[in-house]
Amino acid sequence: MKVVLDQDKCIGSGQCVLSAPEVFDQRDDDGIAVLLAQPADAGTEEGTREAARICPALAITVAE
Amino acid sequence: MLNRILVVGASAAGLTAAEALRREGFTEELTIVGDEPHAPYDRPPLSKQILRGTWEDDRTVLRSDALLAGLGATWILGTAATALDLPAREVTLADGRVLGYDGLVIATGAAARRLPFGHHLAGVHVLRTLDDTLRLREELKTACSVAIVGAGFLGAEVAAVVRELGLTVTMIDPLPAPMIRQFGPEPGELLRRLHEGHGVDVRCGVGVTALQGDGRVEGVELADGSQVAADVVLVAVGASPATGWLAGSGLPIGDGVECDQYCVAAPGVVAAGDVASWHHPGIGRRRLEHRMNATEQATNAARNLLGQGVPFEPVPYFWTDQYDVKLQVYGRSGAEFDFRIVAGDPAEGRFAALYGDGEQVVGALAWNLPRQARLLREHVVRSTPWNSAAHQELNSH
Ligand SMILES: Cc1cc2nc3c(=O)[nH]c(=O)nc-3n(C[C@H](O)[C@H](O)[C@H](O)COP(=O)(O)OP(=O)(O)OC[C@H]3O[C@@H](n4cnc5c(N)ncnc54)[C@H](O)[C@@H]3O)c2cc1C
Ligand code: SF4
């Protein structure tokens, strides 16, 4: 799985960090998401898929 | 056995429901009906990047053609549903077609509310759809002064964009401050100052009594007798759930389609998004007009249509962008709650605050502190006692 994050679309909702804290964090100043790492195991992959589904700005795409 | 599922409404909630049905294993016949001619697109950018012209119009589409095709659904776009026959399990379309279903998802959203007068005049707009946005954007190119009726989130966002485009803006609302219903008096006052600081003429505490003009709008008349000249007027006085097509169907309709805690409105019928009110197990009957809710509720409704029986109990979330300010709210907020700032300082343009109901934390607000919003969400989830949370030193990890 490969995750791509479009920071230009991100509105800093933090929903992805709630779903996959191993993969996403938010910048301190503006809350824009950052990629910490690509998902490394099945559980993290599921959390990442969930993040892509619920991101209210459609900023996350997942290629399987 | 569900052989045919029909989704009515082809936007955020309808599309999400269709995707969730497929993901949860529904492989049979899926039909999606929408009255707009466009493939599903996202609304929040309309009053922001699309109106300002900083995004290409097609950037607001929700899914690529390939992803839409991958759903294996039949799309009927540009065609409204006009009636529901609950006992026969049939939906009638504007072109006369009658579609039978075993499962129905109602996702018709909400429609812009209008004033009881003035909408026949050229230059008077509402903003709900992509077409509305393109029409307004086109007129702004030649306009000088814009009056915005309503200082809720749509009015306030558009005021910011129109000021950034360099036009004169007057924003009018009968309530004492912008977005006071959503945020309460203190943030409302800060928003008033934010808009005034950017040159908006904010007229709060006074309603609009008439739109003036002959053929084309020329101005707005206020309840205090004053007049505001305007060559474009945006009416942003809220939205009403799009339930007209369900009249007489026997479905429970109040403020939206009334569902139980599983988003179920009747056997085999679920509703989600702006059109749906449901019984939140923790906080009672609710209808949310928030982007995040459309996704979460449609996912839940789809699962429950397939019989999974999961109660819908989200922590609500919404945001709004005005100038360089991002406001975010988790949980409940508004004038009826206690309000206390727990981090940052409004004078520095960044702060976070909590809302409480006298006993516990019910909501969190962040003004240009998005990361803290997420951390404060924990207090909402855990219903932290108000007294201890209000004295909390907020440390950002
Ligand atoms: C300009 C704007 C800006 C916004 N900004 C924000 C924001 O910053 N943050 C936030 O949290 N939320 C925001 N929102 C709210 C968010 O966009 C909505 O909550 C979300 O669009 C709801 O999705 P929905 O699918 O339930 O309804 P809708 O998006 O309203 O979609 C319903 C669809 O059903 C169609 N329909 C209606 N009746 C029928 C019928 N009888 N037959 C067939 N089709 C029908 C409609 O035409 C529409 O296409 C904004 C909304 C607008 C309009
Ligand atoms: S969920 Fe989406 S919008 Fe929210 S922080 Fe993550 S990437 Fe950004």
Description:
The complex is a heterodimer of chains A (64) and B (397). Chain A has helices spanning 15-19, 42-54, and strands at residues 2-5, 24-26, 33-35, 60-63. Chain A has 64 residues and is α+β, with helices and mostly antiparallel strands. In chain A, the strands form two sheets. Chain A has a two-stranded antiparallel ribbon. A two-stranded antiparallel ribbon of chain A has the order 2-3. In chain A, strand 2 (24-26) and strand 3 (33-35) form a beta hairpin. The radius of gyration of chain A is 10 Å and the shape is globular. In chain B, the strands form seven sheets. A six-stranded mixed β-sheet of chain B has the order 3-2-1-7-21-20, covered by helices on one side. Chain B has a five-stranded parallel β-sheet with strand order 9-16-10-11-12, covered by helices on one side. In chain B, strand 1 (4-8), helix 1 (12-23) and strand 2 form a beta-alpha-beta unit. The N and C termini of chain B lie far apart (50 Å). The chains are: A alpha+beta (64), B alpha/beta (397). Bound molecules: flavin-adenine dinucleotide and iron/sulfur cluster. Residues 8-14, 33-36, 43-44, 46-47, 80-81, 107-110, 127-128, 154, 242, 245, 273-275, 289-292, 294, 318-320 of chain B line the site of flavin-adenine dinucleotide.
What is the overall silhouette of chain B? globular
Q: Which protein chains make the most extensive interface, counting residues with beta carbons within 8 Å of the other chain's beta carbons?
A: A-B, 18 and 23 residues
Our estimate of the beta-strand percent of chain B is 25-35%
Radius of gyration of chain A, taken over Cα atoms and rounded to an integer in Å? 10 Å
Proportion of residues in helical segments of chain B: 10-25%
Shape type of chain A: globular
Structural class of chain A: alpha+beta
Residue runs with pLDDT of under 50 for 5 or more positions of chain B: none
How are the strands of the largest sheet of chain A arranged?
A: 1-4
DSSP strand tally of chain A? 4
